[in-house]
Amino acid sequence: MYKPTLDYAQQLDKEDKLAHLRAQFHIPKDKDGNDWLYFTGNSLGLQPKQTQQYIQQELDDWAKYGVEGHFEARNPWMPYHEFLTNSMAKIVGAKPLEVVVMNTLTTNLHLLMVSFYQPTKTKYKIVIESDAFPSDRYAVQSQLKFHGFDAEDGLIEWKPREREELLRIEDLEKIVDEQGDEIALLLIGGVNYYTGQYLDIKRIAEIGHAKNCIVGIDLAHGAGNISPELHDSGVDFAAWCTYKYLNSGPGSLAGLFVHEKHAHNKELPRFAGWWNHNKETRFNMRQPFDVIPGAEGWQLSNPPILSMAAIRASLDMFEEVGMEALRAKSEKLTGYFEYLINQIDTDRIKIITPSNPKERGCQLSIQVKNADKSLHKKLTENNIITDWREPDVIRCAPVPMYNSFEDVYRMVETLKTLL
Ligand SMILES: *Cc1c(COP(=O)(O)O)cnc(C)c1O
C-alpha cells in the first residue's frame, strides 16, 4: 500500500499518466518563484495555459469582423454555445439534448424552479440539506415567498443525526415517506460543499419520484469532480458552475440539465427570450414564441462569447483526458492524502468526508480540534492554499488535473509541524 515518504510520493508522480497536465496550467507562485500548493480548485480552478489563446481568437475575430463575426468568425458566435454541449454532456453523463451552458448557477436554479417548482396549496414544501450552500438556501426561500408561502414553514431540512456530520439516505427517505404529500421539490447538492459527501442521486430521484416530488440537483461541487450520470439517475433537473472543478475562470457561465423526459413538454411554465425561440425563425422577429426542445429551451439571451471561449479551452482538456482517467487518478490522490493524514500522530484531527471513495470526490474536509483561523493563516504563509470554514474545518481539494502526489505529501508534512 501507500508509504509516507517523499520518495514514494515522487514515485507515484512518475507513474502518473496524467502528470503532464500540470504543466498545461498556470500555477500561482510566491514572490520567490516557488509554486503554491493549491488546494482550492473546489472554489476557483486554475487557469489552463491555452485559455488565453481561445479568448484571443474571439477578440481577434471581433476586431476583424464586428457584427459579421456571428457568422464569419472562425468559431461563429451564433451557434457558439453548441460547441460546448457535447463535452459538457459527457462530463455529467447526459445526452446533448439535455445540456446547455448559460447564465450563472443561481440564476439557472431560479429559471429551473420557474418551470419545475409548481406548488399547490397543499403540496408546496421544498427539501434541502441542512448545510446547503447559502445561495441555494436563499434561492429556495425566495421561491417559497414568491409563491406566497412562509419560507420557514415551507422549508424542510435534511439533517445529519446528532453527533454526526454526514447525511444518511434513510433519513431523507423517512422525511419523504412521512411528509411527501406536502413536498413539491427536493433540491439537493450532489456533492456537499462542506463535508465533500457525494450522495446517491439516483436513489434521491427514486425517493422523490415515489411521492411525486420533482428532484433537482446542484452539481457545483460535482461537475468535473465525480461522474454523476445525470441521465441514468433520472433526476428532473440539475445546474452547476464552471469556475470550480471546470477551470473556466472567475464567475464564468453555468451548466444546466433538464432530463429528456421533459425535453418536448411545451406546456411547462417558463420564462422566455429570443434565445429559447426556434433557431430557424429567430431573426424573423415577428413570429409567436416557439420554444426550442431540450435544455436550450431555457436560454434567454445571446451568451457572452469571451466567457464561453474560456469554457471551451477547459472542456477541450476534459475531452482529451476523459472523466474516467481523471476519476481513477483522483481516487488514488485523495486516497494518498487521507492515508497521510491518518498517519499523523494526534487526536486533534478528524476527516469528516466519507472514507469510501464512492461517496466522495477529491475534497477532504479536515476537522482540527481547538484550531482557529490562525492555522489557516499559517498554512497560507507556507504557500498552502486551502479553504477555512468556521469553526474548525479545513477544506482541501487535490485536483487530479494539476495537483501532484508530492503536493499532497508536502501539505501534510507542513500541517504536521504546525500542529
Ligand atoms: C459555488 C456554489 C454556488 C455559487 O453560486 P453562483 O450563482 O455561481 O454564484 C451555489 N451553490 C453551490 C452549491 C455552490 O457550491
UniProtKB/TrEMBL annotation:
The modification N6-(pyridoxal phosphate)lysine is found at residue 244. Pathway: Cofactor biosynthesis; NAD(+) biosynthesis; quinolinate from L-kynurenine: step 2/3; Amino-acid degradation; L-kynurenine degradation; L-alanine and anthranilate from L-kynurenine: step 1/1. This is Kynureninase. The keyword Hydrolase applies. Its EC number is 3.7.1.3. Homodimer. Belongs to the kynureninase family. The gene is kynU. One of its GO terms (biological process) is NAD+ biosynthetic process. It is an enzyme of class 3 (hydrolase). One of its GO terms (cellular component) is cytoplasm. SUPFAM superfamilies: PLP-dependent transferases. It comes from Tenacibaculum lutimaris. Catalyzes the cleavage of L-kynurenine (L-Kyn) and L-3-hydroxykynurenine (L-3OHKyn) into anthranilic acid (AA) and 3-hydroxyanthranilic acid (3-OHAA), respectively.
